[in-house]
UniProtKB/TrEMBL annotation:
Protein name in the entry: Indoleamine 2,3-dioxygenase
GO biological process, one term: L-tryptophan catabolic process to kynurenine
InterPro entries from the UniProt entry: Indolamine_dOase, Trp/Indoleamine_2_3_dOase-like
Superkingdom of source: Archaea
Organism: Halovivax asiaticus JCM 14624
The keyword Iron appears for this protein: yes
Record's keyword annotation contains Iron: yes
Entry's Gene Ontology molecular function annotations: heme binding; metal ion binding; oxidoreductase activity
Pfam families: IDO
Keyword terms: Iron, Metal-binding
Length: 388
């Protein structure tokens, strides 16, 4: 079914308050008593290992712990609720990356059945790639310190799963969670802006564009806070290595994989659906280059529902072209405020990437496999060039 952006946001329960975060807060743990004893025991073992993960990595025993996890059948996994399946997907993704990329140990090229099967089966359910991606790292990896705490304030939030005990890692996650929550207003403003173009209502369009620019500015201010509690050395050396992708890894025991090796990109902010949605809403054009092909490939690592929202924005009317047609100065100014805000967001992010990765490691390739220096610079320049 072809939906407008408004209809797609509504259909997939993407709200102004949460954006692409789940409609209900993620599960913090399983309820073993609600399942058959064998399934409940397995889920309890997953919960236990998630709590022990930093210690297991420190002592070098994580691979043994993953190997000895109780196995869950495809039927048992299919019986889980969506929230349970998302938690299992998240834990499996963390355990898989911890096992393959254990710091201070040689990488391995196999995932044992105990973690490969739940990772693949849950990923199939949600139309995503079976590897630790942005959705597991951030969208489904948080809890509030207080039940009614605002999601847009990172000090209100905790990470559910971490590779380390460093508060830096928690801060990295919750900054992204807060940005995602704040982006909800921008997503709805962008969708309503497209509706204003459809109905030829320039006054409504000005209002929506002003809301959109304000939301992007608020996201940028949250992102600027990354440096408050996240040390670049800790990020680059201690936990970023676990965000790397898999090269020729065998997923043991998975139906349909036939023992063949698999290669996937690692977790990356380029797998967030915010900027692709806003680019599409505003009609920000990016030249067809190899970098854009990689960016498009990143969409396959997003949840299927989020890809559908981006596609709906892509199909929508071109706001920039409508602004040009009207010739109204107030409309042009409101549109330019949006693209200026978006360019500023990208500029601040680019500076942080240099600070947190290149300045520490000298690397120019991101965990998603792209040359981030060239990629981010081009995206920033092309956004700034949209000024009417």
């Amino acid at each position: 079914m072809t939906r407008t952006a408004v209809a797609a946001l509504d259909h997939h329960d993407i709200s102004r308050e949460r954006g692409f975060l789940p409609e209900t807060d993620p599960l913090s743990s399983f309820d073993p008593a609600s399942h058959d004893p064998s399934v409940g025991a397995a889920l309890e073992a997953f919960d236990q290992l998630s709590a022990e993960l930093p210690a297991r990595l420190d002592e070098g025993s994580v691979r043994q712990a993953v190997e000895t996890l109780p196995e869950l059948s495809a039927d048992a996994i299919a019986s889980l609720t969506d929230r349970e399946a998302i938690r299992l997907c998240t834990l499996s993704g963390f355990f898989a990356s911890a096992s393959v990329h254990q710091v201070d140990a040689a990488s391995v090229d196999r995932l044992p059945e105990s973690v490969a099967v739940p990772l693949v089966e849950t990923s199939r359910r949600f139309g995503r790639k079976p590897i630790l991606s942005y959705d597991q790292l951030c969208l489904h990896n948080w809890r509030r310190r207080e039940p009614d705490a605002a999601l847009t304030e990172p000090t209100n939030l905790e990470a559910l799963v971490q590779f380390t005990d460093h508060d830096d890692e928690r801060w990295f996650v919750v900054i992204h969670v807060a940005i995602e929550a704040r982006a909800g207003q921008a997503l709805w403003a962008g969708a309503n802006a497209q509706e204003a173009v459809r109905t030829a209502d320039p006054d409504a369009l000005v209002d929506e564009l002003e809301t959109l620019a304000d939301s992007i500015d608020a996201q940028t201010e949250i992102m600027r806070r990354m440096t408050e509690r996240n040390d670049p050395e800790v990020f680059a050396r201690e936990y970023r290595p676990y965000y790397e992708g898999f090269d020729d890894v065998v997923y043991e025991g998975v139906d349909g994989f036939d023992g063949e090796t698999r290669t996937y990109r690692g977790g990356s902010g380029a797998q967030s659906s915010i900027l692709p949605s806003l680019d599409a809403a505003l009609g920000v054009d990016h030249a067809a280059t190899e970098l854009i092909e990689k960016l498009t490939d990143m969409r396959s690592y997003m949840p299927e529902s989020h890809r559908e929202v981006i596609d709906a924005f892509d199909r929508g009317p071109a706001i920039g072209a409508y602004v040009d047609e009207t010739g109204r100065d107030d409309l042009r100014a409101a549109y330019n405020d949006c693209t200026d805000s978006l360019a500023t967001f990208r500029r601040v992010h680019f500076g942080q990437v240099i600070q947190y990765i290149r300045a520490v490691t000298g690397d120019t390739t991101g965990t998603g496999g792209t040359d981030y220096m060239e990629f981010l610079q081009v995206m920033q320049e092309e956004t700034a060039a949209q000024t009417r």
